[in-house]
Amino acid sequence: MNESELKEFLEDMEYCMDNDFRRTFEASDLYTFFKKLMDIVLRNNDGFDDDIVRRLDILTDNIDNFNFPDAKKNIDDLKKIL
Which of 27, 55, 64, 78 is the most buried (most CB within 10 A)? Predict the structure, then answer.
């Protein structure tokens, strides 16, 4: 593989990461949880404390960015304060 082939390979991989992975995520059970969290953050109909809503917002950001290691830390932190 030469440099131009590697560049094309990386571009194709990036496309899959941006599109295929997103479609897979949106068809998953995790996406159902994500949408519920977004509803809590945006509406807070359940009257959660502002700090909890702020932490949930950070969690949704991490999930949306596929930053699952940080999302797991967010969940652990939330469980500790609940």
Answer: 55
Name, in order, each residue with C-beta under 8 angstroms of 81's C-beta and a sequence gap of 6 or more.
51, 52, 55
Environment class of 71 (CB within 10 Å of its CB; exposed 0-12, middle 13-18, buried 19+): buried
Helix axes 68-81, 50-64, angle to 10 degrees: 160
- Tokens for 19, please give them: 């599109």
Q: What distance in Å separates the CA atoms of residue 9 and residue 45, rounded to the nearest whole number? A: 47
Of the candidates 56, 63, 49, the one whose C-alpha atom is nearest the C-alpha of residue 77 is 56
Yes or no: say if 55 and 77 are a contact pair by the CB < 8 Å rule.
yes
Give the pLDDT confidence of 14-68 residue by residue, as tens digits.
998 888 888 899 999 999 999 999 999 999 888 899 999 999 999 999 999 989 9
CA distance 3 to 74: 39
